[in-house]
Amino acid sequence: MAAAVLPDLDTIAFAFGIPYADDFGHRGASHSLVFAMLVGLCAMVFATSLRRSPMTVFCFVAIACASHPLLDAFTSGGLGVALFWPFDATRHFAPWRPILVSPIGAGFFSARGLSVLLSEMQWVWLPAIGLACFGRWLGGRARIAP
What residue intervals traverse the membrane (predicted)? Predict the structure, then answer.
């Protein structure tokens, strides 16, 4: 879960006067697929203690980290996501953007923040839980099958 939240540490850039639209601003470099791969590579050092192969750790963490900017691309606001940074600094949105954009900072704890949570519940969490349950059900059926 930490890897999935890590890209939003870029909000600290505001404290240093880095503009939102900058490569290192919000939804910039830390929201790129390259960043997700670098986080996955760094996580590989924990493979032994996790008793998993380095490739398993890399894939799990990189996918978790990449899920954040990919989902951000489906939000209704902001400047888009620099998915292909450093090769292309263009900010991208998905063609369909049903998830309400989250307010940054204290605004999250407001009526608008609650609306965002409900939107994320509808478009992210409930489908994810449904897929997990379906996968678990399929896995159970595979073990039972003759």
Answer: 29-50, 57-85, 122-139
Q: What is the mean pLDDT of residues 112-137?
A: 93
| Exposure of 33 in the CB half-sphere (CA atoms within 13 A) | 9
Q: What is the DSSP letter of 73?
A: T
Q: Which of 84, 130, 79, 129 is nearest to 101 (CA)?
A: 79
Torsion of CA 33, 74, 120, 14, to 10 degrees: 60
Say if residues 37 and 83 touch (Cβ distance below 8 Å).
no
Residue pair 23/88 in contact (Cβ under 8 Å)? The answer is no
Residue 27's nearest CA partner among 101, 117, 111 is 101
* Other beta carbons less than 10 A from residue 68's beta carbon: 21
Contact, 75 vs 99, CB < 8 A? yes
With contact defined as beta carbons under 8 Å apart, do 26 and 11 qualify?
yes
In the numeric block, which tokens belong to residue 142? Answer: 């595979």
Distances in Å between the Cα of 74 and the Cα atoms of 30, 79, 126, 139 are 17, 12, 16, 30
Residue-wise pLDDT for 30-47, tens only, equals: 999 999 999 999 999 999
Residue 138 has pLDDT above 60, yes or no: yes
